[in-house]
Recover the amino acids of this structure.
């Protein structure tokens, strides 16, 4: 074994030949996974040079959604604790970031911390703290009951966000979001950097970088003893206890990590628009995250990213549709219009995936992969 | 009761003669557990010694699984004491008892169905892995080294139980007999001081049963792990167990070597019904005697007596 340790990949033509456990346990343990991941990363990184800023903004919002949805997938997909309260943690993150980065002399609460990593981390940590406080509920409740209780969280959060004017600006008024500035680069300004990248391009790259880190960390959690403990709790909690898994502890860890991701997503979610109101953190946002997890694939990280991109692109897809479907109108006053279509697609996608491909987009991808693996044979 | 009448065994293995010397691995003393008016375990006492395969048998609802649930901390009895290697474990939570080295399999398979065989076995090693959540996020240094080291240990079990071909399959997709084996492997991965087997061959065909019997004997003789086994397959119990405890309605009926309990009139009554239905009893006894005589005239109460 020691002799082959230096080899990182199987020899060409022998993709399944592993000569060490280290090789076998690597994140990208085959050549095709390695090349595939590299390819996706390169295409994703070059996207800002290829598509319009309009579309780029949508993709960027998809990246942020993916960060939040990965968090939800950790607690709901991996640990099996259904949470409808994700929007609350996103809100906590958004307001923490806004307050930390906000102008100290401004109308609303602000600490004037310009250093982006600091307020990003702060948003994650404060949200994680809220998650840790709420988590003990999950040790008493499960399934539907937990879903209902976490649903209550959204309404409690809404109350606070609406009433605490000093922090949030109040209903329908709102406040400015945290401005991402790092090493003199203003991500939300069109100019001020050599080469003149636009705001959309810079934000996209920023979100992509954060997402890549977030996804890697999530994958590592998933394949570690922590992730295994999560899955054990989801599949059979009694047996998990007998294996020595401390259920309370791991449920709290799951909620804490999940909320951390939600907080990070919240801090970045409104960077592009620059302004947000308390209305944003309603039940619909929670449902959106649930939809991403279901459509993308429960307990997969790559699936979650695919799901987030699809959900983010849905309005755009709908608006492109009238060119192909003549009876669809672009005006909101006529029916059927693209907005109707978008709403319906939302529901249809969730139902269709649950019925026909419970493993989500990841399941489809998996099937395609296995098909080509054995091509030209069908088994 | 459900067991086919396998040919009567040799009077159980030579190791049956129990050494009086060393302290028992487990002492289960006068335990009472009731749910409302139902007395699930009513004053059961037994000891398990080093290298011993101890079987608990009894009719359906006799309280065998309840005894296991007391042992692994799932139920809390009202009275009694349970001492594992000198340490009282009564009142401890399941993870704490698991940490002390009590591993178990379940009557109805309780594997983590969506995880692979390897992941299930690695979960057995959960308490041996020490790195924390932050190390897990980075998968660097300590976390990776520990995972690698324990993967090697898990592979030893894969080898021991001949699970190589299923390593990366989700266990939910495996055949029943293999799932039972994976569950045994998961318990072994915990490096237990005491192994509890709840009906290890329930629902298995003859071939699978014989495989499992071989693994159980290997565990006792090679790995030297003391075991408590609950089983309805009397042929298996009489073949492999060193000592047997018979319970009925939560109450202990008899303890002894397989040959002893088979001859015990109370045991026969517990299994075949006593005074309640003397007519049928006599018929069954006559039938059993006939089978016994045909199968093994010399053994004087072979495996058939308990069917």
């Amino acid at each position: 074994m020691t002799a082959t340790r230096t080899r990182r990949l199987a020899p060409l033509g022998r993709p399944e030949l592993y000569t060490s456990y280290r090789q076998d346990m690597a994140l990208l343990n085959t050549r095709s996974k390695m090349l595939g991941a590299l390819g996706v990363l390169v295409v994703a990184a070059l996207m800002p040079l290829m598509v319009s800023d309009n579309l780029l903004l949508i993709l960027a919002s998809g990246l942020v959604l993916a960060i939040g949805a990965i968090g939800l997938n950790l607690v709901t997909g991996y640990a099996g604790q259904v949470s409808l309260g994700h929007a609350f943690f996103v809100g906590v993150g958004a307001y923490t970031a806004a307050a930390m980065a906000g102008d100290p002399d401004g109308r609303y609460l602000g600490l004037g911390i310009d250093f982006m990593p600091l307020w990003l981390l702060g948003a994650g940590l404060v949200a994680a703290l809220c998650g840790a406080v709420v988590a003990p509920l999950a040790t008493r409740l499960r399934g539907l009951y937990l879903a209902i209780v976490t649903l209550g969280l959204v309404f409690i959060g809404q109350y606070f966000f609406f009433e605490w004017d000093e922090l949030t600006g109040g209903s329908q008024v709102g406040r400015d979001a945290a401005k991402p500035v790092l090493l003199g680069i203003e991500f939300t300004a069109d100019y001020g950097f050599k080469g003149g990248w636009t705001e959309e391009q810079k934000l996209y790259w920023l979100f992509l970088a954060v997402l890549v880190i977030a996804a890697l960390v999530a994958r590592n959690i998933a394949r570690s003893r922590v992730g295994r403990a999560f899955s054990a709790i989801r599949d059979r909690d009694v047996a998990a206890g007998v294996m020595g898994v401390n259920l309370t502890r791991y449920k709290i860890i799951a909620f804490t990590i999940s909320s951390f991701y939600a907080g990070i997503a919240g801090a970045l979610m409104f960077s592009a628009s620059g302004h947000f109101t308390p209305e944003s953190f309603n039940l619909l946002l929670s449902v959106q995250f649930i939809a991403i997890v279901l459509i993308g694939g429960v307990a997969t990280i790559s699936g979650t990213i695919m799901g987030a991109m699809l959900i983010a692109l849905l309005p755009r897809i709908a608006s492109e549709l009238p060119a192909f479907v003549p009876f669809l109108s672009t005006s909101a006053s006529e029916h059927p219009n693209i907005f109707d279509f978008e709403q319906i697609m939302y529901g249809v996608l969730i139902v269709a995936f649950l019925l026909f491909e419970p493993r989500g987009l990841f399941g489809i991808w998996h099937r395609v992969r296995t098909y080509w693996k054995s091509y030209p044979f069908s088994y | 009761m459900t067991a086919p009448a396998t040919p009567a065994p040799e009077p159980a293995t030579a190791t049956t003669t129990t050494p009086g010397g060393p302290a028992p691995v487990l002492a289960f003393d006068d335990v009472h557990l009731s749910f409302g008016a139902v007395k699930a375990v009513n004053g059961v006492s037994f000891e398990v010694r080093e290298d011993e395969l101890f079987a608990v048998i009894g009719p359906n609802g006799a309280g065998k699984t309840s005894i296991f649930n007391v042992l692994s901390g799932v139920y809390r009895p009202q009275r009694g004491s349970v001492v594992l290697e000198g340490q009282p474990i009564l009142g401890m939570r399941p993870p704490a008892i698991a940490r002390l080295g009590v591993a178990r399999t379940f009557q109805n398979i309780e594997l983590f169905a969506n995880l692979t065989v390897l992941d299930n076995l690695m979960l057995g090693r959960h308490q041996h892995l020490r790195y924390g959540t932050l190390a897990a996020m980075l998968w660097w240094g300590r976390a990776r080294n520990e995972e690698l080291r324990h993967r090697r240990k898990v592979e030893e079990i894969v080898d021991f139980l001949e699970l190589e071909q299923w390593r990366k399959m989700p266990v939910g997709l495996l055949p029943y007999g293999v799932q039972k084996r994976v569950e045994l492997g998961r318990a072994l991965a915990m490096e237990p001081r005491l192994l509890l087997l709840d009906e290890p061959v329930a629902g298995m065909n003859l071939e699978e049963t014989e495989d499992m019997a071989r693994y159980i004997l290997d565990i006792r003789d090679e790995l030297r792990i003391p075991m408590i086994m609950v089983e309805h397959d009397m042929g298996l119990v009489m073949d492999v167990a060193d000592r047997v405890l018979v319970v009925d309605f939560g109450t202990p009926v008899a303890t002894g070597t397989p040959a002893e309990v088979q001859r015990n009139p109370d045991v026969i009554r517990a299994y075949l019904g006593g005074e309640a239905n003397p007519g049928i009893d006599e018929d069954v006894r006559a039938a059993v005697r006939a089978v016994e005589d045909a199968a093994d005239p010399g053994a004087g109460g072979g495996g058939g007596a308990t069917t």
